[in-house]
Specification:
single chain; alpha+beta; six-stranded mixed sheet; 22 strands; 38% helix; binds adenosine-5'-triphosphate
Length: 471
């Protein structure tokens, strides 16, 4: 366990005695204890209390904290908001609205009074309850790590940390300390309300778990603490993988390199998607395992297309890149080499076609030896047996009645059926480029070449076709 001592405050919480610390004091025993202990240890404290206006006695709590601050000669800042009204307006639960308003107030006050950190009174018991709540709701490793001694809440401040100096102290020891000092704190009656999951965990679940192992609280606390160190290693790995895969990023999208992504470890792949999706999601809780797993499998399959995640996030694959974006907000860069619906182009071999938006289609001749030396290629490169194709090749969009014999299939099928099967997004089908030899469709870029045009052991020369963006 980590009791409140100087090494915890200076090293783990990274506090110093040169600037004040803002302590969020509800008036309850935990935050009062935190405040008194920090004062005893010689820190300068700014006391901040937020009146949520949700209980009839909330003004009395505020007054009590103010009186104590006066008695202890600490600066006191009181904040107030109509949490009920805000919750309704923003479609949040009362607890969530209260939490957001409170943290916003605490960090704004810390900024205004040049405080080095915001300190709150979460205890070891709160930690154990939090870990169990995460477990019950189905969390990953991140949730099982529980709360940190020192962290940043980026939505409130990226420069002022949130510290929890009494995260290693048990409530019973805190109560004993206050009793010895004769301090009677405010009591929050909602702490006994069993409609709240936290209270059920505290008053019902934990006593039952203790009948299995009397040390369960200690074990859960230790587990969270050691997982935090493990998690840090994973986060470093994910950060490095992110740098390796990131190709493009904007306010409403992130672009990753698919080949790089697929080369990462499976666990890292899932975390990369989670990290990208978290930027754009409307959900407060992260995406669940099943949804992340579905996206990872879709990316590994490699066919261009799109897939929706919960929280308004979309993942779009163009065969080379993975775009994670806010639904409906397409990146400025076009993803695919789309062409006007009625356009027809011709391309000789060797030859080059400049399409819109910086896209280029290049054609050249190669030999089987050269191609095998080059190794694998992406979905927007095709190799055809040169003796089977009729030059120049033609590029156009689909027309009714088009048929296609996909590589590896028994025979031709309707192109429209093929496009449905591969789930090419409906809105791009009329602008998707198709490569024809004479009247025969030989390549659906991003997906398949036509079976009769494949490279075989008897192939002498290969026509290589390649779409790429020149900008
Ligand atoms: N109204 C408030 N004003 C200022 N800070 C608050 C307020 N409510 C909570 N906090 C801060 O957030 C911490 C955690 O809040 P929570 O509601 O979980 O409190 P708690 O575990 O009941 O602790 P306490 O005994 O201090 O009320 C508190 O210890 C306190 O530091």
């Amino acid at each position: 366990m980590r009791p409140l001592d100087e090494s915890l405050l200076f090293e783990t919480c990274e506090l110093n005695k040169t600037a004040p610390i803002l302590v969020g004091v509800s008036g309850g025993p935990d935050s009062v204890y935190l405040w008194l202990r920090l004062l005893e240890m010689g820190f300068t404290i700014v006391v901040a209390h937020f009146d949520h206006g949700l209980r009839p006695d909330s003004a009395a709590d505020a007054a009590w904290v103010g009186e104590q601050a006066h008695r202890l000669n600490c600066r006191f800042v009181l904040g107030r908001a109509e949490v009920g009204v805000i919750a309704e307006r923003e479609g949040l639960s009362l607890e969530e609205a209260a939490r957001r308003m409170r943290y916003r107030f605490l960090f704004e006050t810390a900024q205004a009074y040049a405080c080095q950190a915001v300190a709150v009174g979460h205890t070891a018991d709160d930690q154990v309850e939090t870990v169990l709540m995460h477990l019950l709701r189905g969390s990953g490793l991140g949730g099982l790590c529980g709360m940190r001694f020192r962290t940043f809440l980026a939505e409130y401040s990226t420069t002022i940390p949130l510290v929890r100096p009494i995260l290693g102290e048990w409530r019973k020891d805190i109560e004993r300390y206050l009793e010895e000092k004769g301090i009677i704190c405010c009591q929050d009656v909602t702490n006994r309300d069993l409609r709240f999951l936290r209270n059920r965990v505290r008053h019902r679940l934990l006593p039952i778990l203790e009948t299995y192992n009397s040390q369960i609280r200690r074990h859960l606390w230790q587990m969270a603490y050691s997982l935090q160190a493990d998690y840090q290693i994973i986060e470093q790995e994910v950060g490095a993988a992110w740098q390796r895969c990131l190709v493009d990023e904007g306010p409403n999208y992130v672009g990753l390199n698919r080949a790089g992504f697929c080369a990462e470890h499976e666990g890292i792949q899932a975390r990369l998607i989670r990290r990208a999706a978290e930027r754009f999601t409307r959900e407060q809780r992260g995406s669940d395992f099943a949804s992340i797993d579905r996206v990872v499998r879709f990316i590994r399959m490699g066919c261009p297309g799109q897939i929706d995640m919960e929280g308004g996030v979309q993942v779009v694959l163009d065969g080379v890149h993975i775009y994670v974006l806010r639904q409906g907000e397409w990146p400025i860069n076009p993803l695919w080499p789309l062409i006007p619906p009625d356009a027809v182009f011709q391309i000789g071999v060797p030859g080059q076609l400049t399409l819109g938006e910086g896209w280029v289609l290049e054609a050249f001749l190669s030999s089987p030896q050269e191609m095998s030396a080059l190794g694998g290629h992406d979905a927007f490169t095709a190799c055809l047996d040169a003796d089977t194709v009729q030059m120049p090749l033609r590029l156009r969009t689909r027309r009714s009645g088009d048929r296609f014999w996909p590589y590896g299939m028994e025979g031709p099928m309707r192109l429209s059926d093929f496009l449905v099967n591969v789930r090419l997004p409906r809105w791009v089908r009329d602008r998707w480029p198709l490569v024809f030899s004479g009247d025969t469709l030989v390549w659906v870029p991003g997906y398949r070449i036509a079976h009769p045009y494949r490279v075989t052991p008897s192939t002498q020369k290969i026509v290589v076709l390649k779409f790429y963006r020149s900008t």
